[in-house]
Design a protein that fits this description.
It is built from 17 helices and two strands. By secondary structure, the chain is mainly alpha-helical. The protein folds into two domains: 199 residues, MFS general substrate transporter like domains (Growth Hormone, Chain: A), CATH 1.20.1250; 215 residues, MFS general substrate transporter like domains (Growth Hormone, Chain: A), CATH 1.20.1250.20.
């Protein structure tokens, strides 16, 4: 009985850890763009969203090596969160003092410092949880998913709190994130100690980055898969960066100014994360029944619908139904690609390079793909829209049609070029 009680207490502590980890991210990820517009930096939205992909190319690997060799993972996690939290609070205080004339170089530098130390904490949080569960004799495959789902719940609750406290377009959303980071920095020190590998086999920086897995490009099937993963990864951050200012832009029109969506865009967008949570449960069924090619195509066409519904929807009735549908299909678009792709890589690679292959998949999707895609998307949005009295107005429908057309082309090419026979 005591063992069961201890196990339950450990799982609760890890649940709180995951809740805090993603609540930190949810405080600003979907509404930071609204603040940047009010700060006079609307043309630089894509820079702020792409930089987290670029720092993810090396910072998680670097901090992972530190945790493996020198500083226990829970202490490395604490250090990263503390630095990230202090820097994010600095973003908030500078943004508040600068008002509507924030200097890009100062705000961007502080923000980049924060995300550079925050992005490694996602993997470090997983490492701490895995080590603690294994030491407690738990099956991580069964025990971790119910813990991890509370991370998404934390993300959603944080989004809603920032929305309903009126901080969507204020710099204090960063203070919420920074404050939570500092709390987590101290909380992480209460986690069970994780071992370091000072005397054993050491993982090189090349291995940590996943560069060994580049040998997989010699296989035509895997080369095509990784290339298309990068191409589809280009879509991952677009709606995180531009959905909120797009919905808010309807506030410039009298007919939509008082609609729920305009007033509470973050709440409307949170349906995407709720859908994401539910769609995770569908993946085993679809992957076993249809195989990776069909599941990936489902994701690609879901991205077409995600952008297409934005192009023709609005916050009024019945247009808001189309926006809600866009939020619902996001779960399929995101999960069927990210999680199914990760499972496919796990199944198709040898054990000795499996971890490196996962690193390569993340590098191609959330690194190169998301960052380059966001910069290109920023060019499209800046070309077809303009800043006017705190709103980003213009040909938003053209932007969304361009993004939908891109996703459709990727889907068609993938269907033609990726050859994979599924055995049920």
């Amino acid at each position: 009985m005591a063992s069961t009680t201890n196990s339950g207490g450990l799982k609760f502590r890890l649940t709180v850890l995951n809740f805090l980890e993603f609540a930190i991210w949810g405080a600003y990820l979907t509404c930071m763009s609204r603040y940047l517009i009010t700060a006079g930096l609307g043309d630089y939205i894509s820079y702020f969203y792409s930089v987290q992909g670029f720092v993810s190319l090396f910072m998680p690997a670097l901090m992972g090596i530190v945790a493996d060799r020198w500083i226990q993972a829970q202490k490395t996690l604490s250090l990263c969160q503390f630095i990230a939290g202090i820097a994010m609070c600095a973003v908030a205080f500078y943004g508040n003092s600068a008002g509507s004339n924030a200097d890009f170089s100062i705000l961007f530098s502080l923000y980049t410092l924060s995300v550079a130390f925050f992005m490694p904490t996602i993997a470090l949080t997983n490492s701490v949880a895995y080590a603690a569960l294994e030491n407690a004799g738990e099956d991580t495959v069964k025990a971790f998913p119910p813990i991890r789902v509370w991370g998404t719940i934390g993300f959603i609750i944080s989004m809603l709190c920032v929305d309903w406290s009126g901080l969507q377009d204020k710099p204090w959303q960063f203070a919420v994130s920074g404050g939570l980071s500092i709390i987590m920095a101290f909380y992480a020190l209460t986690m069970p100690a994780c071992p370091t590998n000072q005397g054993g086999e050491k993982k090189s920086f090349i291995d940590a980055l996943g560069l060994r897995a580049f040998t997989l490009f010699k296989q035509k099937k895997m080369a095509i898969f990784f290339i298309f993963s990068m191409m589809l990864g280009s879509a991952l951050q677009i709606t995180n960066g531009y959905a909120n200012p797009f919905i808010a832009s309807f506030g410039a029109e009298e007919a939509f100014a008082d609609t729920f969506g305009v007033q509470h865009a973050n709440t409307l967008i949170s349906l995407s994360q709720i859908s994401e949570t539910l769609c995770i449960l569908l993946i085993p069924f679809f992957l076993k029944r249809f195989g990776i090619k069909i599941v990936m195509l489902m994701s690609m066409f879901a991205w077409v619908l995600r952008f297409g519904f934005f192009a023709i929807g609005d916050p009024g009735f019945p247009g808001v139904i189309l926006l809600i549908l866009s939020m619902i299909v996001y779960g399929v678009a995101f999960d069927f690609f990210n999680i199914s792709g990760s499972l496919f890589v796990d199944q198709e690679t040898d054990l000795n390079i499996r971890s490196s292959a996962q690193g390569l998949f993340m590098m191609m999707t959330n690194g190169f793909g998301a960052s380059i895609g966001m910069l290109l998307a920023g060019g499209v949005v800046n070309h077809y829209t303009k800043q006017d009295n705190g709103y980003t107005i213009g040909e938003w429908d053209t932007c969304w049609y361009i993004f939908a057309g891109y996703a459709l082309i990727v889907a068609i090419l993938f269907a033609i070029l990726f050859r994979y026979k599924h055995v049920r």
